[in-house]
Amino acid sequence: MKLTRRKVIQGGASATLSAALTQPVWAQTTLQADDRTLNTLSDGNLVLPKSFAFGGTPPEGADELLARYGITGDSMTPDCNVTLLHSGDRTILFDVGAGQEFMPSAGKLLDAFDTLGVDIFDVTDVVFTHAHPDHLWGVRDDFGDLMFPDATYHMGRAEWDYWTDPDTVSTIDEGRVTFAVGAQSRLEMLAEQINLFEDDQEILPGVLSRMTPGHTPGHMAFEVQMGSESIMILGDSIVNHHIAFEKPAWLSGSDQDPELGVQTRLGLLDQLSTSQMRLIGFHLPGGGLGRAERRGDGFVFVGEET
Asked: Which of 11, 10, 12, 13 minimizes the C-alpha distance to 27?
């Protein structure tokens, strides 16, 4: 497998590629194997209160842990990495980013498309890890139409059933009502083009579903075959490169079911660190590609560097 890392600067009609640039608009990682090319593309970043990571009083030592990763203020700015897979005659997009209605620091995916020379009509399949705004809301363009009109859309049945249930808006916690309303309005648009699938199913050639609940009720990760090895696309099942790795048993305020999220996270990190399978995390730094390694009683994210 060939691995290259490029720093991409968008400049009007042209783009300058240089590994030496220190302030890129986004980081792009490319993997190639056989007839498959996998890119991670930035949709920008989120701006979240630091308390979002805990959902309440931070555990003892949390501030010190975050400070070691350069997070000392009241907010965090996690990257948003969308994965694009070219495989034969298919162009497969894993999640679609936030679009223009969530927050101004995100919704940059089409800039990345322009740099790669990818058109929205090239996308044959869109695969969702889950239906949170930064993963789903980019499915609709500025005119309220589908951003990828020719695509077939794929979502785990449990995730689809949860967000399309009319009762979800009234039963979800107050801070996530906007998530539920936004998900329902967008998923309604996909009803004629949706393919629903279950856990442990090959939803597309060389793409295997993996149920990873907790962050949302039906969250899915995906194992993508690349030559002789697989890459795990995590979505938000491991949501950051600091607390989630070093203290995976800590409850996360970003998980809808925090205790189930812990079980999922521990299981994934054990598997990934043991097998040394490459992973791509939606909110991990530097394009999101790397590996998990055991470190003491926790783990550490080791990003791919070339």
From this structure: 10
What pTM, to 2 d.p., does this model score? 0.91
How many other C-beta atoms are found inside a 10 Å radius of the C-beta of residue 236? 27
* Cβ 272 vs Cβ 230: under 8 Å: no
Angle (nearest 5°) at CA 199 between 82 and 304 = 35
pLDDT on residue 9: 26
59 vs 197: CA distance, rounded Å: 37
Count CB atoms within 10 A of the CB of residue 281.
30
Taking the C-alpha atoms of residue 178 and residue 165, their distance in angstroms, rounded to an integer, is 15
Residue by residue, what is the 3-state secondary structure of 202-258?
EEECCEEEEECCCCCCCCEEEEEEECCEEEEEEECCCCCCCHHHHCCCCCCCCCCCH
The pair of structure tokens assigned to 10 is 């968008």
Q: Hey, how many other C-beta atoms are within 10 angstroms of the C-beta on 18?
A: 11
CB atoms within 10 A of CB 159: 24
How far apart are alpha carbons 154 and 39 in whole angstroms? 19
The pLDDT of residue 305 is: 56
C-alpha R_g of the chain: 18
In which residue ranges of the chain is pLDDT below 50? 2-25, 306
Calculate the CA 142 to chain-centre distance: 22
Residues near 70 by beta carbon (within 8 Å), at least 6 away in sequence: none
Predicted confidence at residue 29, as pLDDT, reads: 81
Task: Return the pLDDT at 5.
Answer: 35
Return the pLDDT at 196.
98
Do residues 238 and 269 lie in contact, with contact meaning Cβ atoms separated by under 8 Å? yes
Instruction: For residue 147, give Cα distances in angstroms to 122, 140, 168, 225, 285.
Output: 11, 5, 25, 27, 26
The pLDDT assigned to 182 comes to 97
Element (H, E) at 16: strand 14-17
Q: What residues have CB less than 8 Å from 305, skipping those under 6 apart? A: 5
